[in-house]
Amino acid sequence: MGWTLRRVVSSLLTCALVLSLIGPASAALTDPQRARRAVGFIAPHQDKDGAFVVFSSIGSTADAVLAFVAAGVGARETRRALNYLEGQVVAGNVDTEGQQAKVVLAWTAAGRGARTLGDRNLVKELRNGYLDGLEHDVYDTALAVLAIHAAGAVVPSSAIDFLLSQQCGDGGWDFDSTDVDEGPHCVSDPTTDFFPSDTNTTALVVMALQAAPTVAGAPVPPGPFDFFDAIRDEKRGGWGYTWGFRKTDANSTGLVLQAYAAGGFTAPAGSRKALRQLQYGECGAFAFTFEGDAKGGPDLGATIGAVPGLLGRAFPYTGAVDAPAPDTPACA
Predict the structure, then answer these.
(1) At 43, which CATH number?
(2) Chain segment 298-319, per-residue pLDDT in tens
(3) Which of 80, 170, 244, 279 has the fewest Cβ atoms within 10 Å of its own Cβ atom?
């Protein structure tokens, strides 16, 4: 055999060996392995002050902690993120209901008591918010119920009653609040009402009602899962945000998978696969959604949001983060 032919044969054998190691191994990744690789992508994006900046640095940092706890890795990053969140509380920057709820969820997920955080009792502040008679958004209320329950406090019955009263005719919930003249998707005037029923809010409400079902003496209504079935992306098998935006995205699909876990239901066939298909196996990142037939580029926010859903961890949850974030190759 000539040298050139031997080189070709050797190259083919080498390629076959590499493919046998990489291809099947990647295809056979378990969801916990995928989650750990995702954390390997998230960890290097932490700022020096401990924050993860996507849209809101406070909210995104809290979400990152929840991803670390779900995966059980990222110990150093979790400590730094919690220190950042505590510093923001002390500085008076955690000043909205949604931010307070997310910080409490992250704090309790990491096994820390949330009654006093930076000399403030965020749990008491959240509870008092439902005694003042002021209006609330559905989305923030669901987060608040989850946070109060996670902290071991009694959820105000008014918060649960509000959530139950806000269900849309299609079985879902919309972000803000429902008016009596709105249609089945909680839309009154399409030119002025930009919040129809959506998967993200509905998933959080399902988790909130499941977490504290005895407060109002009512179980989770069956309607939400009919809603998820109706709004599901028929092509990819996951979920987008709302009507007219039904293309599978990582954040929405992750939240809906959490809702199925909270309700004790098996996720529809192909839905978890749809989420897996948005991940870059080697570097661990998730794309937000598909661009045509290809997934989009690696996205930090999508990767953070995908981890709990990938693992079927419904809010609220706790866990130990006692291992470092894995080293993963940079995404091309």
Answers:
(1) 1.50.10.20
(2) 999 999 999 999 999 999 999 9
(3) 244
